[in-house]
Amino acid sequence: MNRTVVLAYDGSESARPALQRVVAMSPDKVSITVVCAIETLIRSRVPHGPVVDPIVEHERHNALDQAREELERHDHHPSLLEAIGDLATCVIEAAQRIHADLVVIGSRHRNLAERMLTGSVSTRLAHECPCDLLIAREPTA
Fold it and tell me: From CA 135, how far away is CA 50, in angstroms rounded?
């Protein structure tokens, strides 16, 4: 059975376990789409499209390149999706669009105050993801 997988990846240390989980999947049994999302600087609608920080956009390109290279080293051939918006929404939309069987994300280990102020991507995905969700964590010692 072939699986369609969405990997949320931003190049951070907390995203590495998610990448490693997807790398370990059999290349002939999985189709992978890597999603990296960035927020806009200006949320209003402008004629030229959303305005994003060029440094953050460069980091997004680097993260996608890093994921692609790692996956290709293990015989995977991922699709890359550069998204603009909050990560949870972008991942949900990608999963719906490609009819994903699985979404894989990392966990940032935020404290209660951070989660209350900014929300938790993993919590939102656990409630709204249209398919199975794997939250990959760093191995504990």
Answer: 30
